[in-house]
Amino acid sequence: MSTYKNLIGKDVNFLTTDPDNDAAEGQIWYNSTAGVFKDLLVSEAWFSSGSLGSGRYALGQGTGGTVNAGIAVFGRKAGPAVNSTEEYNGSGWSTGGDGNTARYGCAKFGTQTAAVAAGGKVTVPSVQNVEEYNGTSWSEETDYPSQARQYLSGFGTLTSGVICSGHNSGTFYGLTDEYDGTNWTTGGVMNNVRSSAGTTGILTAGLIFGGQTPSITAKTEEYNGTAWTESGDMSTARSHLAGSGTQDAALAYGGFTPPSTTQTEAYNGSTWSTSPATLATATARNSSVGSGASTGLSFGGNPPGTTATEEYNRSANVITGAVFSSGGTANTARRQLGYTTSGTQNSCMGYGGFSPGGFINNSETYNGTSWAEGNNLNDSKGQLAGAGTATAALAFGGNSNNANTEEYNGTSWSEQNNMNVGRYELGGCGLQTAGLACGGDTSPPGTPTVVNTEEYDGTNWTTGGNLNTARRENDAAGSQTAAIVAGGGTPSGTTATESYNGTAWTTVNSKIRATVAPRTMGGLTSQTAAVTNGGHDGSAGIVGTEQWNGTNFSTGVNMAQQRFSQASDGSISAGIVFMGDSPTPAMLKTSEEYNGETSALNIKTITTS
Question: Which of 545, 539, 554, 489 is nearest to 517 (CA)?
Answer without folding.
Answer: 489
